[in-house]
Amino acid sequence: MKKAVISIIAFAIATGMAFAQTAEDVLNKYVEATGGKTLWDGVNTYTMKQSYKAGTAADYDMDLKVNLADGSMSKSKTILKRTFIYGIKGNTGWFKVPLGTGDKATQYETKDLNQKEQDNMRRELKEMVLPFWDYQKKGYVATLVGTETLGNKKVNHVEITGKGVKYNLYFDQATGLLARKKLTLSPSEVITEDYTNYATSSYGIKYPSEGTYSNTAEKRSVKLTTSIVFNDNISASAFAR
To answer: All domains of the chain, ordered by start, with CATH?
Structure first.
């Protein structure tokens, strides 16, 4: 009888602790599971290469270069052997459109990005690698929705909302790693990434390296692969207009 009572008390305490968990607890667990706060705080630059493949003509590769210190980003998207380049630095933003047929050295026409496109790239500076990075400073609100089942995993669902953006993040309870990221930019644009594998960078941060990507605007699901180098030595010319 005494053992049964002790077991009931232990179960009640464990259950109480689970319910006492907050959104911040879940987010902090992910930071620790991917390398720890010290490593994340030490990130100054990163380069990211991604491929979006479904075996169609719409497949593309993306190459990002980011300098967090001065808020610079260069994003190159290559589709059908043509590379389109988006950039921001300071208060300016631009878009480079390739000219010609591609059988000669590529020439570009440079246009200004509108304010909405610039704001979106500035949001991506940190959120591409950590969706909730500095979320409180941005005025975002994080809420622990609860525990759910995703595939065969028990996950903690955290919702983060800000002006014009909403993240629904699903963290594996066992590992603390992110299993799904769902980004809502508008009623007609919802981006979902499901992660099936993680890799560890030479810097020591672990990141999702394989999974699937779908966008309601594009109406298709593709295989997503990612590689990241943190604190890479990026030339200033990468952010030249």
So the answer is: 23-239 (2.50.20)
